[in-house]
Amino acid sequence: MSVQYVRQSVPTDGGELAVGVWGETGPLVVAAHGLTSAHMEFVLVGERLGEDHRFVAPDLRGRGHSRELPGPYGMARHAADLAAVVEAYGGGPATLVGHSMGGWVVLETARQYPLLADRLVLVDGGAPLPVPPGVDGSAGDAAIAMAIEQALGPAFARLSMTFPSAKAYRELWRAHPSFSDWSDAMDAYADYDLVGDEPELRPACLLAAALRDAREMYAFPGVEPQAPPAPAVFLRAERGMLDEPAGFYEREYASAWLPGVSERTVPDVNHYTITLSGRGADAVAAAVRSAQVGLDREGMADSAPDA
């Protein structure tokens, strides 16, 4: 079955928010992407859910085709933008999906706009991250940038780079250890991310946006465990940012910071391929379709519970 995909825009504070839409009818699902990404990271999830849902994923402010929207950035601003998307596509309550930084965005959206969210699917994101050594809440941009680069590696370093061609940019991503099994979906993801003209193409994500938003992702002093404001599932990628055996999150870490969340581990995926692979996209789609907060065995056939 071929699922319709269109690019549209939603009015928001300061301009138009770019969105990708898969499907035409069915329950509304709105998704928020990661720190340096854009809505095309959800292409495989959208193809699956668009069969029986309306799946809408914006480029967050400062990224993708929303990069020209003015700051300030931060989770409250992204939450207001996400609320505008929900309202534009019929209003809530909707299921909100957040990958990586998007997990923080959908949690904040549900807290600030409780009538718009009836369920959250947190995809390897949303639980406060351990504070890197030598960094505190008053750290400057240089210290925050160093912490992010240590965590994200080449995904963050690319924001300060230019590329002579789309092919050169694809080659950067192909060399990333998380993308050993390259696919057409990854081509689409990389190609969409570029702005400018050859030979000075650059990633669409603004460095200033990434640095500002990252400040709200760490467990700085004063940050306390907080239950999700709506029934929530946390999908933990088995492997990490660079496909290392240790995941981005340790087992049960998210449950400690987000009391009451239903935590599951998706095997054989990393922090990227939990959305940009068939296995990962199947797990995310199953979590959305699950009739209950806890993922049922049939819906998570490709996943394994935490031991």
Molecular structure report:
The protein is an alpha/beta fold and 307 residues long. The protein has 10 helices and 10 strands. The protein has helices at residues 43-49, 75-88, 101-112, 141-152, 154-157, 166-174, 184-192, 207-214, 253-257, 278-289, and strands at 5-12, 15-22, 28-32, 54-58, 94-99, 117-123, 194-195, 202-203, 232-237, 262-266. The strands form 2 sheets. Strands 1-2-4-3-5-6-9-10 form an 8-stranded mixed β-sheet, sandwiched between helices. It has a two-stranded antiparallel sheet with strand order 7-8. Strand 1 (5-12) and strand 2 form a beta hairpin. The longest helix has 14 residues, at 75-88.
Descriptive terms for the model:
single chain, 307 residues, alpha/beta, eight-stranded mixed β-sheet, two-stranded antiparallel sheet
Strand line-up across the major sheet: 1-2-4-3-5-6-9-10
Helix content: 25-40%
Category by helix and strand content: alpha/beta
Largest sheet: 8 strands, mixed
Concise structural overview:
The chain has 307 residues and is an alpha/beta fold.
How do the helices and strands line up, and which of them pair or pack?
Blueprint: E1 5-12, E2 15-22, E3 28-32, H1 43-49, E4 54-58, H2 75-88, E5 94-99, H3 101-112, E6 117-123, H4 141-152, H5 154-157, H6 166-174, H7 184-192, E7 194-195, E8 202-203, H8 207-214, E9 232-237, H9 253-257, E10 262-266, H10 278-289
Parallel strand pairs: 3-4, 3-5, 5-6, 6-9, 9-10
Antiparallel strand pairs: 1-2, 2-4, 7-8
Helix pairs in contact: 1-10, 2-3
